[in-house]
Amino acid sequence: DLLHGNAGNDRVYGNRGSELITGNAGNDELHGGYGCDGIYAGPGDDKVMGGPGRNFFRDRCDRLHGGDGRDTILGGAGRDKMSGGVGDDYQVGAAGADLIFANRGADVSIGSDGNDTLWALSRYDVTALGDMLGDQLFGGHGNDHFRVRDGEVDRVSCGDGRDRVLADQYDAIAPDCEKVRRVVVTSLFQVGDGPENREEAPPADGDEGGGE
Predict the structure, then answer these.
(1) Do 109 and 95 reside in the same domain of the chain?
(2) Are residues 10 and 92 both part of a single domain?
(3) How far is residue 212's CA from residue 196's CA, in Å, rounded to a whole number?
(4) Are residues 113 and 90 in the same domain?
(5) pLDDT by residue (tens digit) across 104-156?
(6) Which end of the chain is more exposed for a tag (fewer CB within 10 A), N or C?
(7) Do 7 and 91 share a domain, yes or no?
(8) Can you give the pLDDT at residue 78?
(9) What mean pLDDT is reported for the chain?
(10) Residue 135 exposure: Cα atoms within 13 Å on the Cβ side
(11) What is the mean pLDDT of each run of 10 residues along the chain (212 residues)?
(12) Is residue 3 domain-shared with residue 97, that is, in the same domain?
C-alpha cells in the first residue's frame, strides 16, 4: 500500500500490510502498521513511529527516515533501521536489534532493548577537529555496537551488556563501555564521507568495528 501525506501537518496510520508512507512537507505524525513499512517523513519537525512489524526473511523490517527538521523517531517491536536526516533529531529504538544513524545535526540516539548498532559518522556538520557539537548515544540493554569516529566530540554511554565502541580521540566514552578502540583522527579528510560513513551501505563488522 502507498500512503501519502500532503503539504500540511498530516497524521497517517499504517494497516496490516506492508506500506510505503510519506509525509511530504509539514509537521507530520506517521505510524507504521503490522507489516514491514518504509516511512519517509520529509521536511518538517516530524514524529515517526514504527509498528510491530516482523519478518523472518528481512533483516530490517521497518525503515524509518525523518528527513529535514527536528524529528522524533520511535522504533517498533521488530528490527528497525532508523535515520533522522538533517536536523537535531531524537531517536529511540525498542525491542529488537535496531540500526540507528545519527546524521547531520546534534542528535540523541537511544538503543533501548536489543543488541543495537548506533552510528554517528556524518562528516558534513563537522567544521573542525574537536567540534563540540557532537551527538549523544545511549545503548540501553543488550550487547551494543557504537561507531563514532568522526572528529567531533560525541558522548557515548553503553548501558548494560557487553558493548563495543569505535571512537576517536575527542569522544567522551562512559566507563560502562567494556571494549573501546580509539583511532586518532588528524585531518578532516581522514574519515571523509566515504562508503563506510553512508547509511545506505554500512560495512560488515571487521577489524575496524572490533572495539579492542
Answers:
(1) no
(2) yes
(3) 19
(4) no
(5) 889 999 999 999 999 987 766 677 777 788 899 999 999 999 999 888 899 99
(6) C
(7) yes
(8) 80
(9) 83
(10) 34
(11) 87 87 94 89 94 59 91 90 93 92 92 93 72 90 94 94 95 96 80 43 33 32
(12) yes
Sheet arrangement for strand 38-40:
2-4, 20-22, 38-40, 63-65, 81-83, 99-101, 117-119, 145-147, 164-167, 179-182
CA gap 104, 67 in Å, rounded = 10
Tell me whether residue 190 is in a domain.
no
Taking the chain, what is the end-to-end CA distance rounded to the nearest angstrom?
Answer: 45
Query: Are both 33 and 73 inside the same structural domain?
Result: yes
Residue 196 lies in a domain: no
- The total number of structural domains in the chain stands at 2
Whole domain around residue 2: which residue ranges? 1-101
Q: 193 lies in a domain?
A: no
